[in-house]
């Protein structure tokens, strides 16, 4: 029995040594990658003079030329309801690029509630849908515009 316990103890000791070695190699690998990405370690240094940079605060409610600056959404009735409910989970850019009618916006919200854990919007759902339908309806896309001012060459 002593021999068997001794063998188990040896295996445990070897296991501890190997795990320590793997941890050490992992730490060294991470440090090497960091040095490869940032060789002069500038991301760890303070700015010249040893002062920190002060970042200006963004005015979350600022509207410039009819566009909500923080989100890029059109300023219209229901904007802040959309910002407060939709941009918690995804960028406003996904709203801007997906233009739909009322039925499709409602179906998309239903899909997000069923599959993406979107909460019940209550009375806000109608406000959101109306904002989206008014400001991001489907675009009527027909044929591309005719080419003009082209210097055509003759095929031989």
Low-confidence stretches: none
SS element count, helices: 5
Biggest sheet descriptor:
2 strands, antiparallel
Q: What's the number of structural domains?
A: 2
* Mean of all residue-level pLDDT scores: 86
Query: Which CATH class of the largest domain is shown?
Result: Mainly Alpha
Percent of residues in helices comes to: 40-55%
Content of β-strand:
under 5%
Indicate the overall shape.
Answer: elongated
Number of strands: 2
Task: Note the gap between the termini.
Answer: 95 Å
What structural class should be given to the helix and strand makeup?
A: mainly alpha
Q: Under CATH, the topology of the largest domain is which? A: Cytochrome Bc1 Complex, Chain D, domain 2
CATH architecture of the largest domain: Orthogonal Bundle
Gyration radius (Cα, Å) is: 30 Å
Topology pattern, helix = H, strand = E: HEEHHHH
Give keywords:
156 residues; mainly alpha; Cytochrome Bc1 Complex, Chain D, domain 2; 2 domains; two-stranded antiparallel ribbon; 5 helices; 49% helix; elongated
């Amino acid at each position: 029995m002593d021999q068997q316990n001794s063998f188990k103890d040896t295996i445990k000791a070897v296991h501890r040594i190997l795990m320590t070695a793997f941890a050490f190699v992992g730490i060294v690998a991470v440090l090497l990658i960091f040095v490869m990405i940032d060789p002069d370690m500038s991301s760890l240094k303070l700015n010249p003079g040893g002062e920190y940079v002060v970042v200006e605060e963004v005015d979350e409610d600022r509207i410039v030329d009819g566009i909500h600056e923080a989100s890029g959404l059109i300023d219209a009735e229901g904007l802040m309801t959309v910002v407060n409910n939709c941009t918690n989970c995804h960028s406003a850019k996904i709203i801007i690029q997906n233009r739909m009618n009322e039925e499709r916006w409602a179906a998309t919200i239903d899909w997000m509630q069923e599959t993406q854990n979107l909460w019940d919007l209550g009375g806000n759902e109608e406000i959101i849908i109306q904002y989206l339908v008014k400001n991001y309806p489907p675009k009527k896309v027909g044929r591309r515009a005719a080419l003009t001012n082209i210097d055509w060459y003759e095929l031989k």
